Amino acid sequence: MKADAANAGDTGIVAGDTEIVAETVRPRKRSLLLAGGGVKVAFQAGVLQVWLDEAGLRFDHADGASGGTFNLAMLCQGMSGTEIADAWRRTSPASGVSPNWRQFTRPGYLQSLFTLDAYRRTVFPGWGLDFDRVRSSALEATFNVYNVTRQRLQVLPPKRMSEDFLAACVSLPMWFPPMRIDGETYMDPVYVTDANVEEAIDRGADEIWVIWTVSERGEWHRGFTAAYFQIIEAAANGAFRRIQDRIERNNADIAAGGAGEFGRRIEVNVLAAEVPLHYLVGFGADRLHEAVNRGVLAARAWCAERKIPLAEPAPWPAPADPLSLRFTERLSGTVAPSAADGGALSAPGGAPLSLGLDVSVDDLDRFLTDPEHTASVSGRLSSTAFGGDRPLTGGTLQMLVDDDGDPARKEIRYLLYFTDERQAPLTLIGSRRLTSGDPLRIWDETTVLRARVVRGHRTPADAGDVREPDGVVAEAVLRLGPLALLRQLAGLRISGSPPVARAAGLARLGAMVFGKLWDVYARPVLTWGPV
Fold this sequence. Notes:
It comes from Streptomyces ipomoeae 91-03. Helix content is 30%, strand content 27%. It is α+β, with helices and mostly antiparallel strands.
């Protein structure tokens, strides 16, 4: 990786009182920090696809800590951002699980719950890791590992990296055994740093770009697993914020005419995200692959906000033999005019309303791994308020997507197009919101659709806030009854071949729904669904 042309140095001519002095401006140096986060760094790989390949960003230095060293190793051996993202898209979390069975006979003194043997046998080769290529990398890169023997953080260049050292970089105490290398003991450095900002500063960075996936929700749940990772969050976030505070004070001092702690202004760009993926406890391949695609979408939005131009993204790969999904949904309730209706509704006092929806997905794999989870909808809307039985002219359903960007709250969103008896275009915009986190409210929240009917046909981009759209004609509340739900489940069909693939597709769909419901209603047990 090299600096952008815009970062290249130039020579300026400065006019003094008596002479003209040539001054060489030091080229700006840009560092990329691949912070840790367990397998949440799959999200980081999606960001790299956008930053490196679509935005064409170039970095003079790259640093990795904990799980971020996985992506740094792939970067060092010359893989593109898309290749790194695709490596994670091919990964099954279950393929990296290897319990440390021998240690289970001594629970009070066990070395670790798991080993990294399965990663070495399966995951590393699946990523195509070649440590000869890593060691010969020309990239200025730094791998962070904690040297237990010397009780200090150790920063390794690519030429010192090996499979053992990469394993040491992610050897989280109690979960994986520490690594013994050349008579010294090493482990994951997360309790000291999860993003070595100081190393980037020491190497002359003027811009520091960080991909941060450690949770900042500030929650505290009970239990050993929750407490363990909450301690990690406290350590990682605390250390990261301390160095950010130092940089802010440095920049303020320089702006005031002082020298600053670091002697130059330092720009920090952080893309932080709450990734609905547990750091280690997870077995769902689709959830992992969705995390990669979340990184892609988040990075594109992040770049758009900062007016960083992007190349046209590659189209979603077309599967050779896709599975399709079909099901019907029947909801019924009432519709009433809104206060701003102005008499447009045919039934001023309100009227029954029913929806008969045919939901279709042409590519099940995309539906399950795309964070938007979008299906096409056809069918009919029936109400005297709109002139009787009206065919839908189009529409979409988004299943269990994040509510207002919060992955711990979900929505089932509807955008349905139809016309009234005067052929005036209308759109029903609504959602079933799963937000309380209370398992006792799961039935009410998953079966009640609150919707508004607005004038015109709205696209998802211009529909605005689905709970406060403009041009509202009517408001509706509809329910999915128990019998309707049973008919919906009985009528669900997955098409494609062979039959084993259809069965697997049905299991994947069930796992997706189960996992999303877990994200809302079972977080005290495990913060994010295990599948």
